[in-house]
Amino acid sequence: MEIERIILRQIKMDLLTPFTTSVGTEVDKDIILVEVVGKNGLSGWGESVSIVQPMYNEETVKTNWHIMTDFLIPLLKKEPIKHPDMVLPRFQFVRGNYNAKAAIEGAVWDLYAKSQNLSLSKALGGVKDKIEVGVSVGIQPSEQQLLKQIDGYLQEGYKRIKVKIKPDWDVSVLTLIRKHFPQIPLMADANCAYTLEDIDHLRRLDEFNLMMIEQPLAHDDIIDHSLLQANLETPICLDESIHSAEDARKAIELGSCRIINLKIGRVGGLSESKKIHDLCVKHDIPLWCGGMLEAGIGRAHNIAITSLSNFTIPGDTAPSAHYWRQDIIEPEVKMENGFISVPDGPGIGYEPNLSLIERLTVKQSTICLC
Ligand code: MG
Fold first, then answer.
1. Angle at CA of residue 293, ends 334 and 225, nearest 5°
2. Could you say which of 263, 274, 282, 363 is catalytic?
3. 346 located within any domain
4. How confident is the model at residue 1 (pLDDT cuts 50, 70, 90)?
5. What predicted TM-score, i.e. pTM, was given to this entire model?
6. How many whole angstroms separate alpha carbon 272 and alpha carbon 367?
7. Contact indicator for 333, 303 with CB cutoff of 8 Å
8. Is 164 a catalytic residue?
9. Which residues span the domain enclosing 91?
10. Quick check: helix, strand or coil at residue 302?
11. Alpha-carbon distances of 214 from 8, 67, 220, 332, rounded to whole Å
12. Helix (H, G, I), strand (E, B) or coil at 52
């Protein structure tokens, strides 16, 4: 599976509906796609989850392009990559920049799986042939609109509902949701909107029988979360704070969380995701796969990693039509009765729609590794 060249494309896609969290609103998305072309003529595909503003982490589409072209791809020239597990160690010279690293590494994994004639799921050690699907509901203009949205999603078959919360959009909203939907699997994502001073306020959320509260405190914290978890009955799930298996180990040892939201882009790729998965198996910490409003390529990678055994909680990998008028893969990701089938074709198991990708491309560069 020796790599011959890498094609970077930046595409622009409109979201079907704007998505609002406690940190901002997104209406469209610039996305970097990585195509790794092997000397065997096969192509592996990856997608960066970075957005144009550094509001989830420090990376942006622009910094990704710079880091990929000036540092990461040149590092692949040194010696041939024989297995995708070699990619992240090769990138060690570059600190952070996990989204950029993961996009390239994911494409190498896809190329590797295709070269072995294996599905990406099987290449990663996946065991499931379908995955449970949850949905994330952004902050809505009114409570009535939120209830209507939740009701619609339940009718569509989603297995759990996640709502975004912030200090003035939490107790009243959760009270209302529980009044109308007392039994649904429900969780709340705070995207770092609270501090330890809110500890008494956050304890009030225990009464809502939430599956978890996701990332209530700072994006770079694991210490304060351990203090908060000791004072809460509801499990804390960490998202933004976990960038590696080492971070996960420290958070688990400190008791900072009882659940982890894994995002491939946030941890530098699929090899690190597997390490976190295996560590969590050892410590009996369930996982689920978070979403970053991915287009089809990133969505396909999420499906593959979710097929591993310890992803026991429904993730955010909703079908393509939930986000996009037309997705960039064929077939699109579809949901049936709250499940998405894990493809068993080689690699990611979906074909990139090249003519659509070409139409959406705003910037392109080819780098030869020869
Ligand atoms: Mg989150």
1. 120
2. 263
3. no
4. confident
5. 0.95
6. 25
7. yes
8. yes
9. 3-117+351-368
10. helix
11. 33, 30, 14, 29
12. coil
